[in-house]
Design a protein that fits this description.
The protein is of the alpha/beta class. It has one domain (about 5-240): Class I glutamine amidotransferase (GATase) domain (Rossmann fold), CATH 3.40.50.880. Helix content is about 35%, strand content about 25%. It has eight helices and eleven strands. It has helices at about 30-35, 55, 80-90, 100-110, 130-135, 195-200, 205-210, 215-240, and strands at about 5, 15-20, 40-45, 60-65, 95-100, 115-125, 130, 145-155, 160-165, 175, 180-185. Strands 1-3-2-4-5-11-10-9-7 form a nine-stranded mixed sheet, sandwiched between helices. The chain has a two-stranded antiparallel ribbon with strand order 6-8.
């Protein structure tokens, strides 16, 4: 079963359900923002905990985190189909949902958009270029800022959603559908003080992609502190816009 990692006492406690695919790919820099806003946070672990549609409809907020598998790998990972159905129920309920990397891809796929492997990797910190709609969105503070990219798949922009950001190799880096649905391909939430967990946990992928690990560690140290502040600004702006 899922378990609570933080609770807040009071007459009305906002609830956040976080779907996690890897233990170390958690809320990261998003966690203190939710705590400051009075959210009680519960994690559920995909592939271990049952993720039923009704469990995603009830919370005030749902956050779907990243992971190293593809949304199309439903044969080796059948829980992905169940997870996508639950996400669709959340979307149909028109309640706030935020997806990061795999989470954004699952949301895009639930909305009928194509998600596919690209055959290449984008790993490391590099600048994000916002579209005009992105510069008018909750991502406005990220224009030109180096953020952490860690993916090889890409999503198409769902019907009715706005394309907010791009990089030279990946034109679709973020989307919003209305005020309550936000998908981020990049890892705005990654905590630079815990980047070592990523470097160890993804050691094989980094070696395959011929990524310079000491350089990636140095990038995290250089850009991480500023990104933590930008992360808080983006999440606070989106939660305000989503009515939370």
């Amino acid at each position: 079963m899922g378990y609570f990692v933080q609770s807040t006492e009071g007459p009305h406690v906002l609830s956040a359900l976080v779907i996690r695919h890897l233990m170390f790919e958690d809320l990261g820099t998003f966690a203190p923002v939710l705590a400051a806003r009075g959210f009680s946070v519960e994690y559920v672990d995909a592939g271990v905990d049952t993720i039923a549609p009704e469990s995603l409809v009830n919370p005030d907020l749902v956050v779907v985190m990243g992971g190293p598998i593809g949304v199309y790998e439903t044969e080796p990972y059948p829980f992905l189909a169940q997870e996508r159905r639950a996400i669709l129920a959340r979307l149909d309920a028109d309640k706030p949902i935020l997806g990061v990397c795999l989470g954004a891809q699952l949301i895009a796929r639930a909305l009928g958009a194509r998600v596919e492997a690209t055959g290449r990797k984008e790993i490391g910190y590099s600048p994000l270029e916002l579209t005009q709609e992105g510069r008018d969105s909750v991502l406005r503070v990220l224009d030109g800022e180096p953020v952490l990219h860690w993916h090889g798949d890409q999503f198409a922009i769902p019907k009715g959603a706005k394309r907010l950001a791009q990089t030279p190799g990946f034109p679709n880096q973020a989307f919003m559908r209305g005020p309550r649905v936000l998908g981020l391909q990049f890892h705005l939430e990654a905590d630079h003080t815990r980047i070592e967990r990523w470097l160890i946990g993804h050691a094989f992928e980094l070696a395959q992609a011929k990524i310079d690990v000491p350089d990636l560690r140095a990038q995290a140290a250089a850009y991480g502190p500023r990104l933590a502040a930008l992360s808080a600004a983006v999440l606070n702006a989106w939660l305000d816009e989503a009515g939370l």
